[in-house]
């Protein structure tokens, strides 16, 4: 922030000269300030003495410090809450974050739970499940040896080793350890060899058929069957109908004399 050339005492002295009878234009020309600056001084320090101006300045500085502290605290709280909700997905990770906030930051249990989005009763809950560290370790070892095995095959391997465990529990541990195998895409198998299409060397060796469609002015649609010779590119026949019928084949059409010679 740019520092003013005039102190509070000087500004109040200029305003007292204005109260004594000097115009604002004369004072601005005398002290080399703009009209906007003078009227800003008058709106801020009008009717004050030097002690009141100093007290106002100290209050403004203290107010600015408090605003900055409050903004930093609010931003830190928002960052903690945003990171907690974004990254702390499991109850275990949230419980760890709450413990860290209580021990290192001195937060209360309710406040720390509120920051990470966890109920205090959930934080105080203690699981009664037995320790599965050995089973998890063996599961990781088998998954490392058999990289393409899913939880079903790993369950069979554990049963062969004499480990009796429910498949639902094994699947939960399998998911917690993030051992999920990526699914493979289906293999594309070639169905025989493809021979390139032979190029016709004379007329009437190969014909091609295709349909085109359009709409009449009354909204009815009609289709046209076009028969083309692949060698000469001649249109041998065009059969147009609003309905496709079996007796409307090019062989039964007499629209072109070239259809008398069928392709060899």
Defining traits:
264 residues, mainly alpha, three-stranded antiparallel β-sheet, 3 strands, 50% helix, 9% strand
Describe this structure in words.
It contains 10 helices and 3 strands, in the order ααααααααααβββ. Among the domains are: 133-176; 207-257, no CATH class. The chain is mainly alpha-helical and 264 residues long. The protein is flat. Helix 5 crosses helix 6 (109-116).
**How would you state the average pLDDT, rounded?**
79
Q: Largest sheet at a glance? A: 3 strands, antiparallel
| Widest sheet: strand ordering | 1-2-3
Q: Uncertain spans, ≥5 residues at pLDDT below 50?
A: none
Helix content: 40-55%
Distance between the termini: 95 Å
Strand-pairing-aware structural class: mainly alpha
Number of strands: 3
Which quaternary structure do these chains form? single chain
What's the alpha carbon Rg, rounded to whole Å? 45 Å
**SSE pattern, N- to C-terminal:** HHHHHHHHHHEEE
**Count of helical stretches:** 10
| 3D shape | flat
Strand content: 5-15%
